[in-house]
C-alpha cells in the first residue's frame, strides 16, 4: 500500500515536472480560489465603491450623488466614535486573547492525558455559533433575571450591558470566551511542530522550563504568533453578529463599532450610500492592518526555522 | 415602537446552530507561509459563503412576481401569531385553490428582511406594516399596490373599520394599507399589590408621578420598569410627554419635515423631565440592560420588582400568556398617561400604534392579488377571526364589537383600550414608524443617550434638527 502511494506520487511529480518545466505546481491550481475570490470579494467590492457615490434607500432607484455620502460619513461624529470603539475592542481583545491562548496552547500541546481532556473542554465554545453565545450571555448577564440574582450573588448582578463604561469590557470578555479556543488550537499545533531535540539540547545545557519557553518556544512560534495576531486584529473588524445580538451597539453608541455602524446605517437607517462608504473605509483599514502585521514579521518568510533540527 | 413582543428565549426551543463557522485551524498547517494561508483562507471563506448563499436562496420565498402561484404572507411572532395562524389555517381549509403561504419572523429581523426582500423583488404578497414614513417609502418606490379602487368597489370592507384608524393607511389621499389586527395605544400599567403595599394611588399628574418615586424607592421597589436596551420603549416616554406638554401639532410639524421642528420648546421640556426622572432614580436599576424583546421589562412588574411600566396595549396579551394569574387575580391594572400642569395637549390624546396593516405587493401576480383581496374581504375580520383576537386580549379595529368586548373575560382592559382609542381626539403614530427610517434610527440612538445622560436636551434637539428631510 505504502509502496503504491509513493510510486503514484513519484509518477505524478514526474508528469508535473514534465509539463510545467520544473517550475513547481501549475498555476491552474489557484484557479478555483481565484474565481471565488473574484466573484465573492472583488466584484462586490467594486459594487460597494460605486454605491458609495450614490444615494439609495434599498427600495427605490439608485441615484448618483457624488461625494455627499462620503461627506455625511466623514463629518458624522458617530463614525469617529465607531473608529475609536473598534480600536479599543481590537486592542483589548488582543491583549486579553493573545497571552491566554499562547499559554493555553503551550499547555495543551503537552502529551499528558488530562491535558488532552482539557483541550477538548476548551474547544467547546468554538462549536457554538456567535448568535447562540450572545443570546446565552445576554440572559446570564441580565441584572434582574440573570446569574447574579439567580445565584444570589449581588456582585454578579451588575448592569453589565447597560453601563457605558463597563459594557466594552463585557464585550471583550465574551469575544475572548468565544475565540480563545480557536487561537489556542493554532498555538497547540505550532508548539507540536517544534522538534523535541531543541528541548533536549537545552536541557543538557541546563535551561529551566521558563528559559526554554522564552528561548525556544516563543521564537519558534514567531510565525504562529503572526498568523494568530493577524486573525485576531483583522477579525476585530468583523465582530458583528456577536455584538449585534448582545448589545445592538448600545447603550448609546458605546459598542457601535465600525462593522455594526455600517450595518445599522445600511439596514436600519436604510442609507446604502453612507453604509457603502463605511464599508470601503473598513476594507482599507483591514488591508492596511494585515499588511502592517506581515511587515512586522520580517520580509524573508521562506527562511527556515528548523535549521539544525 | 412596533409590536415587539413575547419571544422569551427558551434554550430548549432555540437550539444553537452548530459549528457553521469556518475552521481554518483544522485545514492550515503551520508550516504554510502567510501567502498560502491567505489564499486558503479566502478559498475556504468563499466556499462557506457560497454554501450559505445557496442555503439562503433555497430557504427564501419564491419570487412574488411569478404568475399562478399562491399568495405569500409574512407575519410577526408574538401575541397575535396564533390568531393569524388560525385565521390563515381556516382560510386555506375553505379555499384550497387560494391557499396562502404564511411564515413568521421576529419583529426586528422582519423589518430588515422584508425591506431587503422587497427591494430585491423577492418580497411577500402581503407586506406587514405600521403605516407612516416606512409605508411612504414603499409607496415612493412603487412597491405596494393602491388599494383605493378595491375599497371603493368593496364598501363593506371600508365600512367595517374605525375611520380614524383606516386613515393611517393613506398616503397622498390614496389607501395603500388596510388595518389587520388590533388597536395598540400606549398605556401605563401598574402593579396594584405594590400600590396597596405602600398605600399609593396611580398618578394623575406628572407631579404625582414624581412624588411616587421616593415612596416606592423607600420600600425597595423600582418605580418604573423600562426595556431600555431595545430603545423603542424609551420613545414612549418622549411621545407622551411632548403630546401632553405641546399637543399633537409638535410632532405633526416634525413629521412634515418643517425646518427646526425639533426646536419646539415642548421637546426640550419633555427631555428635561425624562432626565429629572432618571436622576430621581425613577427607572429600575440596569434599565439599559433590559430587553423588551424578551418581555423582561413586563416580567419585572408582574413579579413585583417594579411598580409601573409604560408600554403598548399589546403587552397585555403577553402578560396574559406568560402570567395569567396576575391578570385574573387583578394584580395588574392600567391607567392613562398623567397630565402635565400647564400642558397644551388634550389629556384624552393617545400615542402608540393605531393598528398593524397589510399592504399588497405591486409585484404580485394577478392570481396572487386576487386571492389576497379575497382574503382581505372574507377571511380577515370574519366573525371567527374577530372573536379570536378578542379572546387573545386584543381590541380588533372594527366597528360594532362593543357587545363582544363586554362579554369577554378581559372586558375591563378591552373596553378601556377601545374607549381610549375611540374617544381620542388625536392618535399619534409611534414616531419611529412615522418618520423616515434614517430619522427614526438617529432619534432612537440619541434618545438612548438622553436616558443615559450622555447628552443634553439641547444637543438632542440640534442633532435631530440636522436630520430633517433625510
Per-chain topology:
The complex is a heterodimer of chains A (309) and B (470).
Chain A: H1 2-20, H2 31-51, E1 54-55, E2 63-64, H3 68-75, H4 77-108, H5 113-127, H6 130-140, H7 147-151, H8 167-192, H9 196-204, H10 209-220, H11 222-236, H12 241-246, H13 258-268, H14 272-296
Antiparallel strand pairs in A: 1-2
Chain B: H1 24-27, H2 34-59, E1 72-76, H3 81-94, E2 101-105, H4 107-119, E3 126-129, H5 132-140, H6 148-153, H7 155-160, H8 163-166, E4 170-171, E5 174-175, E6 178-179, E7 184-191, H9 192-198, H10 206-218, E8 222-225, H11 232-246, H12 248-255, H13 265-279, H14 296-302, E9 306-312, H15 315-322, H16 324-328, E10 332-335, E11 350-353, E12 357-360, H17 366-379, H18 383-391, H19 402-406, H20 411-423, E13 427-429, H21 431-434, H22 437-451, H23 457-465
Parallel strand pairs in B: 1-2, 8-9, 11-13
Antiparallel strand pairs in B: 3-12, 4-5, 6-12, 7-9, 7-10, 7-11
Helix pairs in contact in B: 3-18, 11-12, 11-13, 11-22, 13-23, 22-23
Architecture overview:
- The complex is a heterodimer of chains A (309) and B (470).
- Chain A has 309 residues and is mainly α.
- Chain A has one domain: MetI-like (MetI-like fold).
- Chain A is built from 14 helices and 2 strands.
- In chain A, strand 1 and strand 2 form a beta hairpin.
- Chain A starts with a helix and ends in a 13-residue tail after the last helix.
- Chain B has 2 domains: 252 residues, D-Maltodextrin-Binding Protein, domain 2; 183 residues, D-Maltodextrin-Binding Protein, domain 2 (3-Layer(aba) Sandwich), CATH 3.40.190.10.
- Chain B is built from 23 helices and 13 strands.
- In chain B, the strands form 4 sheets. In chain B, strands 7, 8, 9, 10, 11 and 13 form a 6-stranded mixed beta sheet that branches.
- In chain B, strand 4 and strand 5 form a beta hairpin.
- At the A-B interface, helix 2, helix 6, helix 8, helix 11 and helix 13 of A face helix 1, helix 2, helix 4, helix 5 and helix 14 of B.
Amino acid at each position: 500500500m505504502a509502496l503504491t502511494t509513493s510510486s503514484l506520487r513519484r509518477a505524478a511529480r514526474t508528469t508535473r515536472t514534465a509539463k510545467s518545466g520544473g517550475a513547481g505546481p501549475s498555476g491552474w491550481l489557484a484557479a478555483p480560489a481565484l474565481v471565488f475570490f473574484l466573484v465573492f470579494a472583488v466584484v462586490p467590492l467594486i459594487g460597494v465603491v460605486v454605491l458609495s457615490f450614490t444615494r439609495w434607500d434599498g427600495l427605490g432607484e439608485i441615484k448618483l450623488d457624488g461625494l455627499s455620502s462620503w461627506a455625511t460619513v466623514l463629518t458624522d461624529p458617530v463614525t469617529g466614535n465607531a473608529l475609536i470603539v473598534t480600536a479599543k475592542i481590537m486592542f483589548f481583545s488582543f491583549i486579553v486573547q493573545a497571552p491566554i491562548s499562547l499559554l493555553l496552547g503551550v499547555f495543551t500541546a503537552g502529551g499528558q492525558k488530562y491535558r488532552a481532556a482539557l483541550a477538548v473542554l476548551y474547544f467547546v465554545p468554538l462549536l457554538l455559533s456567535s448568535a447562540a453565545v450572545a443570546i446565552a450571555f445576554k440572559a446570564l448577564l441580565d441584572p434582574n433575571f440573570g446569574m447574579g440574582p439567580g445565584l444570589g450573588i449581588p456582585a454578579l448582578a451588575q448592569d453589565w450591558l447597560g453601563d457605558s463604561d463597563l459594557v466594552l469590557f463585557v464585550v471583550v470578555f465574551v469575544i475572548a470566551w468565544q475565540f480563545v479556543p480557536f487561537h489556542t488550537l493554532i498555538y497547540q499545533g505550532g508548539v507540536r511542530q517544534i522538534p523535541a531535540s531543541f528541548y533536549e539540547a537545552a536541557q543538557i545545557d541546563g535551561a529551566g522550563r521558563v528559559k526554554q519557553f522564552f528561548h525556544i518556544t516563543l521564537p519558534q512560534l514567531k510565525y504562529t504568533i503572526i498568523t494568530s495576531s493577524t486573525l485576531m486584529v483583522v477579525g476585530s473588524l468583523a465582530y458583528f453578529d456577536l455584538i449585534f445580538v448582545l448589545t445592538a451597539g448600545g447603550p448609546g453608541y458605546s459598542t457601535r463599532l465600525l462593522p455594526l455602524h455600517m450595518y445599522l446605517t445600511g439596514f436600519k437607517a436604510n442609507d446604502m450610500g453612507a453604509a457603502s462608504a463605511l464599508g470601503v473605509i473598513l476594507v482599507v483599514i483591514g488591508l492596511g492592518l494585515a499588511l502592517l502585521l506581515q511587515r512586522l514579521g520580517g520580509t524573508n518568510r521562506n527562511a527556515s526555522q528548523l535549521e539544525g533540527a | 415602537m412596533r409590536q415587539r413582543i413575547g419571544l422569551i428565549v427558551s434554550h430548549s426551543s432555540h437550539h444553537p446552530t452548530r459549528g457553521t463557522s469556518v475552521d481554518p485551524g483544522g485545514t492550515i498547517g503551520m508550516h504554510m507561509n502567510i501567502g498560502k494561508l491567505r489564499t486558503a483562507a479566502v478559498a475556504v471563506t468563499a466556499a462557506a459563503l457560497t454554501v450559505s448563499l445557496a442555503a439562503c436562496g433555497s430557504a427564501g420565498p419564491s419570487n412574488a412576481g411569478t404568475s399562478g402561484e399562491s399568495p405569500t404572507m409574512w407575519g410577526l411572532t408574538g401575541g397575535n401569531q396564533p390568531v393569524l395562524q388560525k385565521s390563515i389555517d381556516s382560510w386555506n381549509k375553505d379555499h384550497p385553490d387560494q391557499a396562502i403561504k404564511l411564515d413568521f419572523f421576529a419583529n426586528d429581523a422582519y423589518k430588515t428582511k422584508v425591506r431587503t426582500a422587497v427591494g430585491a423583488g423577492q418580497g411577500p404578497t402581503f407586506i406587514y406594516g405600521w403605516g407612516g414614513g416606512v409605508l411612504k417609502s414603499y409607496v415612493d418606490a412603487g412597491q405596494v399596490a393602491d388599494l383605493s379602487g378595491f375599497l371603493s368597489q368593496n364598501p363593506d370592507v371600508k365600512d367595517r373599520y374605525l375611520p380614524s384608524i383606516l386613515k393611517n393607511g393613506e398616503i397622498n389621499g390614496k389607501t395603500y394599507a388596510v388595518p389587520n389586527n388590533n388597536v395598540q395605544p400606549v398605556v401605563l400599567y401598574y402593579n396594584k399589590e405594590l400600590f396597596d403595599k405602600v398605600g399609593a394611588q396611580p398618578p394623575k399628574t406628572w407631579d404625582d408621578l414624581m412624588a411616587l418615586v421616593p415612596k416606592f424607592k423607600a420600600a425597595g421597589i423600582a418605580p418604573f420598569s423600562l426595556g431600555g436596551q431595545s430603545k423603542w420603549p424609551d420613545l414612549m416616554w418622549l411621545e407622551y410627554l411632548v403630546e401632553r406638554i405641546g399637543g399633537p401639532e409638535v410632532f405633526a410639524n416634525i413629521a412634515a419635515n418643517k425646518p427646526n421642528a425639533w426646536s419646539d420648546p415642548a421637546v426640550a421640556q419633555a427631555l428635561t423631565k425624562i432626565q429629572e426622572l432618571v436622576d430621581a432614580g425613577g427607572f429600575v436599576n440596569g434599565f439599559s440592560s433590559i430587553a423588551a424583546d424578551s418581555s423582561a421589562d413586563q416580567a419585572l412588574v408582574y413579579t413585583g420588582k417594579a411598580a409601573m411600566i409604560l408600554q403598548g396595549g399589546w403587552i397585555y396579551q403577553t402578560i396574559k400568556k406568560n402570567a395569567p394569574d396576575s391578570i385574573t387575580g387583578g394584580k395588574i391594572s392600567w391607567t392613562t398617561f398623567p397630565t402635565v400642569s400647564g400642558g397644551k395637549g388634550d389629556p384624552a390624546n393617545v400615542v402608540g400604534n393605531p393598528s398593524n396593516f397589510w399592504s399588497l405587493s405591486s409585484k404580485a401576480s394577478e392570481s396572487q392579488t386576487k386571492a389576497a383581496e379575497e382574503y382581505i374581504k372574507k377571511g380577515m375580520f370574519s366573525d371567527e377571526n374577530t372573536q379570536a383576537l378578542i379572546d387573545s386580549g386584543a381590541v380588533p379595529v372594527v366597528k360594532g364589537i362593543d357587545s363582544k368586548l363586554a362579554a369577554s373575560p378581559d372586558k375591563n382592559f378591552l373596553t378601556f383600550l377601545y374607549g381610549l382609542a375611540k374617544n381620542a381626539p388625536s392618535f399619534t403614530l409611534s414616531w419611529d414608524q412615522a418618520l423616515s427610517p434614517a430619522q427614526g434610527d438617529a432619534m432612537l440612538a440619541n434618545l438612548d443617550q438622553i436616558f443615559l445622560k450622555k447628552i443634553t436636551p439641547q444637543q438632542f434637539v440640534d442633532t435631530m434638527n440636522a436630520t430633517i428631510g433625510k
